[in-house]
C-alpha cells in the first residue's frame, strides 16, 4: 500500500453531483480544460460547498487537463496524453525522451513476462558493448546500407580525437557475430541462444514521436544460431507468438502475425516476420515487433562455421528478434481517450485507486478507515491498489487525475456507502458504475479487472476489424487508403510492384506500403489477380500507411 | 533442469584415482595446463582405462586450463579466470568487454535483491536518455571537471556532422536534474526518488580491466531529492547498508562502510560514503559502491526549488548512489583460486553439478537414473542443480571444467554409491568430500551450500583482516604500504596532507591515498597525531593503493 497523503480531513462534496465533469464517459475534454484552468473550486462546484474556508488550500492546477481530443488532432492528443499521464517528459535533445516511472513500470511488467518465457526456451541473457567499429559494422553489405544513415558516431573523448570513429549500436548483429564465430566450433556448441536488454540508437530525423520513433530506445534483442534451418524457422515463430502475447494478453492490443515483403524485411536477413498493429484514428499500421530469420548471410560474412556430428563443416542458421519500448506507445494510441490514458489492468502499476468521498459533516475517520481497509484487503489479494487521501484536492479533481493516469478501476467510499456496507466501483474503460457489498470486494474487483482487460482487447479488435477493407482493384485500393483503412489485397509479391505502389502513393501523408502477409492466409481463388499489377496474385497482404 | 548432453554411455574411470588432478585442493595449475593441452586421455589416465575405443571421441581441449597462478601473476590470473570461466570475452574495442551469461546471471541476481529493496523505500525506476548536451553537462563546475577527460562525444550521424557535439552520460546528475527542477514545485512533490538501471561510458585510458575498469559498464544510479538534509543523510546510510549486503550477503566479500576524504569524494557533491573492499593479493583497496549526499550544490545550479508547507521557498537536498558491474570483478578477485572461479552459492547460476561416474561395466543406466533423480529432487527443493551427462568428456575433465566455472558443489554418483544408496559431495571452496545417504540429499546439500556461503565470507574476512595494519608514523606507513597492507592510520583530515602523501608515494605501483574513514571509528586518544603531518589526528582512516 502506497498512500498518497496520510492525515484525515474534510472533503468537498461533489460525488454524484450534476457537474458534467462527473458524469462518467461523456465528460468533455474542453470542459476538463476549463476545470483545470480555473482556480478550484469552479463556480459550479462552489455552489455545492459551504466550506469556503477550504478553498484556498485546494491547489490550482493548470497543467493536467487534456486540451485536445483524440478525434480532432491525434498527434497533439498523443503528445498530451503521454506527458500529462506522466509517462514521458520531453528532453532537450530532439528525439530523446525521458521514460518516467509510469512508463518504466509497464516496461518492467512486460519484461517480467517475456524474460522467463525465453529462459524456458533455453535463451540466456548476455550484455554486449554499446560500441562497434566501422570495420565490423560494415561487414554485411545490405545490413549496413539499411542502417548507415542513422548511425551515431563517437569521434572524440574529452578533448582528444579518437584514432578511428566508433559507432553506437543501432542493433547488435555485427557487434555479436564475430564472437559467435569464435564460440561456435562444433555441433555441441549449438544452438547458441542469447538475448540482451539494452538501449540502441538510431539517429532518425523524421517525425520523432515518444515511444514510437525515438533516437534512443530500450529493447530486448535475441540472437540465436542453429545447426539447421528447421530449428531456426521454428524459433522464429515461437518468438513471434510471445510477441503476440505481449500485445494481446498484456497490452490488450490486437495484432496480426505475418511475414514482411522483400522490400520491408530486415536488412541483410533471409525473411522477417512481425506482429502488426493498427491505429484506427490515423489509419496507419505499426510494426509491433519483429522476429527475423537471418538465414546464413551473416554466418557467411562472419564465418560462423561448425563441424557437424559426422565431422563435416557446416554453416549456422541464425535468427534475431526484438521488441522495444514502442510497445507502450502503441498501447497508448489504441486505448487512450479524451480523458487521457487507459491502462489494461495487467500492466497498470496502480490497478485500483481508492478515493474517500466524505460529504460535509460525514464521519471522515470511519470513511478513511474503510478506504484503508479496502486497500489493505486488495493488496493482500495481490491487487495493486492505492489510496488517495490528499486533503488539498477534491474527490472530483482526483477522479479526473486518476482517469488521466489511466487507472483501470476507481473505488469511491462515502457516508452512504458506509451505511450500506458497500463501495462504488467505477470503470475507466466504460465509465460504468456499480455498487458492491464490502464483503465481496476482492472477488468483484478481480472480476471487473479481468473484464476490463478483456473489454479493452475486444473493443480494440472490433475497431481494428471495422477498418479492414478487402480490395481487388487499384481504385478500390486508393479509396480505402484515403479512408484510412487497413487494406487487405491480393498481391503478386513482386518487389517492383511494391516500389511502384509506393511511388504512386507518395504524398503529404507518406507512401503506402505492405504491412505484412498474414501467416493465416485466405485461399487464393482461381483467377485472382494483384490489385496493383494485374498479374496473378500469390498471397493476400495487408497494405497501408505506417509509422 | 538443464541437462548437458542426454544419452547414456560408458565413462572412463578416473574417480578416486591417484591422478594428482583429482586430489582436491592441491591441484596444480601447471599440471592442469598439461592436462588440457594433451590429447585426452593423458598417459596416466590411459593406464587406468581399458576402453581405448572411446579415446577418439574425447574432445581435445586446450583452452580451458588455468596457466597462471593467483600468487604468481595476479593480473594475468584474473584475465584468465574471467575468460576461461566464460564470464567475459574481450572485445575488439579496448576497454569494452562482453558480459557472457555466466556474468549476467550474477548481475541479475544482485538486481533481484536490490531492486525490490529500493522499491520498498519508495524509489521508482525511470529511464533517462544516454545523451546530454555540452551546455547542461557543464552546469556544475566541479562535477564536469571530474568527468570531462573521460566523456565520449558524438559528433556525427550517418555522414552528417551534428550541429553541436553531444556527450554520452558518464553519470546522470546533469541529465536528470533540469527535470527535477521542472517536476518539483511544492513540498508535496518531495521526496522525489528515482533509480535507473543502465549503461554509462567513461572513456578511461589507464589499465582497462574486465568488470573493474571498463569504458562502458552497467550500473544502477539512484537520484533522490528531499526537503531536508536529515532525510537525505538518512537515505545515504540506508543505501550504503544495501550495498554492504550486496557484497557481504551475496558476493561473500567483506567491505568497510566509510566516508571518503574531500579529495576522493564525488565531484560536485557534499560528501561521499562508500563500501570499500580489499584485494589481499595485490594489496589494493577497491571502491565497491558509493552513496553520495550531493547537498544543495546541484540544486543551486539547476534551481531545484520548492515551496514548503508555510509557503516559503526552499532548496532541495539531493543524493545519488550507484553500484556497478564492478561488484562481479571484486568477487572474482577475492574468491578465485588456481583452479579458476569460485562462486558463492547465492549468486551461482548453477549451485550444484551432478556428474555420473560409471566404472567400466557399471550399470550406467541406473547411475544415470540416480543422477537425474538427484537433480530433479534438488530442483524441486529450489536448488539450482544441473546434470552433466556428456559422453565425450571423462568425469575428471568435467570436475576440472566445473571447478573452473566456480560451481560451489559437485555431486558424484558411481556404482559404489549406488550400492550404498549414497552420493559423494565435493565442495568447491575447500575440496572437502563427504558421502551422504540419498535420503538426506536435499537437506545436506542445502546445509553445505549455506556453509560454503559462510565459509567464503569468513575466509575472505580473515584474509582481509590479516592485511590490516595500524600505523602511527610515516615509516610504519611506508613499510606497510610496501608490504601490501590495508593501512589504518590516524589522520588530520587535511586535503593538503593527502595530496602530499600521494605525491610522496607516487611510483610504479601508483600513489597511496585514503580509501575511507570507517563509520565505525575507534576512539582518538589524547595526543594521537596524524601519521603524515604530525598534527593532531581527527579520525582513523584506511589508506592504501587502490584500483
TrEMBL record, chains A, B:
Reaction(s) the record says it catalyses: tRNA(Pro) + L-proline + ATP = L-prolyl-tRNA(Pro) + AMP + diphosphate
Protein's GO biological process? prolyl-tRNA aminoacylation
Q: Give every Aminoacyl-transfer RNA synthetases class-II family profile domain span.
A: 95-344
Q: Which Pfam family, just one, is annotated for this protein?
A: HGTP_anticodon
Keyword Ribonucleoprotein among record annotations: no
Instruction: Enumerate the InterPro entries for this protein.
Output: aa-tRNA-synt_IIb, aa-tRNA-synth_II, aa-tRNA-synth_II/BPL/LPL, Anticodon-bd, Anticodon-bd_dom_sf, Pro-tRNA-ligase_IIa, Pro-tRNA-ligase_IIa_arc-type, Pro-tRNA_ligase_II_C
Q: What is its EC number?
A: 6.1.1.15
Q: Where are the transmembrane segments?
A: none
The UniProt keywords, alphabetically, are: Aminoacyl-tRNA synthetase, ATP-binding, Ligase, Nucleotide-binding, Protein biosynthesis
Alphabetically, the GO molecular function entries are: ATP binding; proline-tRNA ligase activity
- Any one GO CC term of the record: cytoplasm
Under PANTHER family, the record lists: BIFUNCTIONAL GLUTAMATE_PROLINE--TRNA LIGASE, PROLYL-TRNA SYNTHETASE
Name of the protein described by the UniProt record? proline--tRNA ligase
Q: Which organism is it from?
A: Rhynchospora breviuscula
Amino acid at each position: 500500500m502506497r498512500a498518497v497523503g496520510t492525515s484525515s480531513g474534510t472533503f468537498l462534496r461533489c460525488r454524484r453531483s450534476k457537474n458534467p465533469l462527473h458524469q462518467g464517459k461523456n465528460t468533455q475534454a474542453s470542459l476538463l480544460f476549463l476545470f483545470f484552468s480555473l482556480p478550484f473550486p469552479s463556480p459550479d462546484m462552489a455552489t455545492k460547498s459551504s466550506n469556503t474556508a477550504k478553498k484556498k488550500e485546494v491547489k490550482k492546477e493548470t497543467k493536467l487537463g487534456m486540451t485536445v481530443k483524440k478525434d480532432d488532432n491525434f498527434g497533439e492528443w498523443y503528445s498530451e496524453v503521454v506527458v500529462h499521464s506522466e509517462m514521458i517528459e520531453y528532453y532537450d535533445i530532439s528525439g530523446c525522451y525521458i521514460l518516467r516511472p509510469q512508463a518504466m513500470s509497464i516496461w518492467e511488467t512486460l519484461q517480467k513476462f517475456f524474460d522467463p518465457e525465453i529462459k524456458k526456451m533455453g535463451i540466456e541473457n548476455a550484455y554486449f558493448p554499446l560500441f562497434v567499429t566501422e570495420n565490423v559494422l560494415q561487414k554485411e553489405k545490405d545490413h549496413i546500407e539499411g542502417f548507415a544513415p542513422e548511425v551515431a558516431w563517437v569521434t572524440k573523448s574529452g578533448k582528444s580525437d579518437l584514432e578511428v570513429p566508433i559507432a553506437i549500436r543501432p542493433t547488435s548483429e555485427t557487434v555479436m557475430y564475430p564472437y559467435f564465430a569464435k564460440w561456435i566450433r562444433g555441433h555441441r556448441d549449438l544452438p547458441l541462444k542469447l538475448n540482451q536488454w539494452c538501449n540502441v540508437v538510431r539517429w532518425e530525423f523524421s517525425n520523432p514521436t515518444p515511444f514510437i520513433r525515438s533516437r534512443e530506445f530500450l529493447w530486448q534483442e535475441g540472437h540465436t544460431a542453429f545447426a539447421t534451418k528447421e530449428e531456426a524457422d521454428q524459433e522464429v515463430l515461437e518468438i513471434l507468438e510471445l510477441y503476440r502475447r505481449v500485445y494481446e494478453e498484456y497490452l490488450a492490443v490486437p495484432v496480426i502475425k505475418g511475414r514482411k515483403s522483400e522490400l520491408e524485411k530486415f536488412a541483410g536477413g533471409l525473411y522477417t516476420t512481425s506482429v502488426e498493429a493498427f491505429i484506427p484514428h490515423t489509419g496507419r499500421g505499426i510494426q509491433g515487433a519483429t522476429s527475423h530469420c537471418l538465414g546464413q548471410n551473416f554466418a557467411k560474412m562472419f564465418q560462423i562455421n561448425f563441424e557437424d556430428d559426422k565431422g563435416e563443416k557446416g554453416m549456422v542458421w541464425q535468427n534475431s528478434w526484438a521488441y522495444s519500448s514502442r510497445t507502450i506507445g502503441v498501447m497508448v494510441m489504441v486505448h487512450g481517450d479524451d480523458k487521457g490514458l487507459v491502462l489494461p489492468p495487467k500492466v497498470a502499476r496502480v490497478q485500483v485507486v481508492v478515493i474517500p468521498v466524505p460529504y460535509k459533516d460525514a464521519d471522515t475517520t470511519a470513511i478513511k478507515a474503510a478506504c484503508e481497509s479496502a486497500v489493505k484487503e486488495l493488496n493482500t489479494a495481490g491487487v495493486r491498489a492505492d489510496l488517495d487521501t490528499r486533503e488539498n484536492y477534491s474527490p472530483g479533481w482526483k477522479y479526473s487525475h486518476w482517469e488521466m493516469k489511466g487507472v483501470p478501476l476507481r473505488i469511491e467510499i462515502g457516508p452512504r456507502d458506509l451505511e450500506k456496507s458497500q463501495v462504488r466501483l467505477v470503470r475507466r474503460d466504460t465509465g460504468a458504475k456499480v455498487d458492491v457489498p464490502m464483503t465481496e470486494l476482492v472477488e468483484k474487483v478481480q472480476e471487473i479487472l479481468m473484464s476490463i482487460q478483456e473489454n479493452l482487447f475486444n473493443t480494440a479488435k472490433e475497431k481494428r476489424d471495422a477498418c479492414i477493407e478487402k480490395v481487388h482493384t487499384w481504385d478500390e485500393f486508393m479509396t480505402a487508403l484515403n479512408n484510412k483503412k487497413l487494406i487487405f489485397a491480393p498481391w503478386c509479391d513482386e518487389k517492383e510492384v511494391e516500389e511502384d505502389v509506393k511511388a504512386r502513393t507518395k504524398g503529404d501523408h507518406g507512401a503506402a506500403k505492405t504491412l505484412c502477409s498474414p501467416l493465416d492466409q485466405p485461399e487464393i481463388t482461381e483467377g485472382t489477380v494483384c490489385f496493383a499489377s494485374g498479374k496473378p496474385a500469390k498471397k493476400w497482404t495487408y497494405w497501408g500507411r505506417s509509422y
